[in-house]
Amino acid sequence: MIQPTNRLISLDAVRGFTIAAMIMVNFPGTEEHVYFTLRHSKWNGLSFTDLIAPVFLFVVGVSIALAYSGKRDSAAPRGPLYRKIVIRALKIYAVGMFLNLMPDFNLADARWTGTLHRIAFVFLFCALLYLNTNWKQQVWIAALTLVAYWLALTLIPSPDLGRVVLEPGQNLVAWFDRQFLPGRMWQGTWDPESILSTFPATVTGITGLLAGRWMLSSASPTEKVAYLMTVGFFTTAAGYFWGLTFPVNEGLWTSSFVLVTSGFAAMLLGALYFLVDVLGYRNGTAPGIVFGANAIAVYVMADVLALFFYRLKFGGLPLNELVVEELINVGFQPELASLLYALFFVAVNYIPAYWLYQRKIFIKL
């Protein structure tokens, strides 16, 4: 039983359920059989899976606002705090590199970007912004970044082709990575966690900073809910209409994608804040709180446990393929069988996460 605390329980729940969703979509029973919305969109569009990373970055922004609000107003020297922020970002990036290199640790074929790498950069930039700017300046930085990114991708020709294109591997973002990004790219000629798209991804974090500032305000709980839901709705709508000319696209992390997903994240936080922190409906939040208490540790643990649950062979087949095959043989739809194994793997990760939570062991990078 999760005991109520003075923390923002809804934020813990959003963080934890987002990590659980990451594990579910990253580790299906078999890549061959996956429901379409549990895959990333092939290019333009928005699936359930496409929402996961931006929601987590939004939560990173909210968490920064809650964690550093007192430090920002303090007269203490900033040097030690800046060092802690930089060191924490480096730790997150290093763990991301560890996962990328595992299990062969072949530096010659290393990929230098990824989910944790992006979280590290967004955390670093947003934390420094939060400590050195007010909310109006953050709004201007966010808006100018999104407009500049839109203009760059729609007006500057790709040097390889001499014309403006937004197609995978041919756009300005992919060209920039081929010039300056070391190592292997996830899709060969392009990478979804690219150099240039880190800028709009940081704006996703800034939207979380703004939401966090509102949650710290003296507004009443109902006013906070109304603000999150209203601003979230109109932000999502603005992203949709912008997407008619600048498509919603996670691979490019387009400006329209930022608005649509940040608006969704704000409404999700508003809804859970109303249900959990205002009305007190907390029974269903336990799994989210457990996962959220050690979010990055659980994310890393999933990759380690996958070495057994997805690589170790039994009778010539990895355990995941063996289980999915048996489920299909007894009559389960292939996609359902694959999803059931993914949910089983989420439950496997819950066991050590719960063990850590019960013993109040919180692994912070």
Automatic annotation (TrEMBL):
Keywords: Membrane, Transmembrane, Transmembrane helix. It comes from the Bacteria. Residues 7-157 form the Heparan-alpha-glucosaminide N-acetyltransferase catalytic domain. InterPro entries: HGSNAT_cat. The chain crosses the membrane at residues 51-69, 81-103, 115-132, 139-156, 195-216, 225-244, 256-276, 288-310, 339-357. The keyword Transmembrane applies. This is DUF1624 domain-containing protein. It comes from Rudanella paleaurantiibacter.
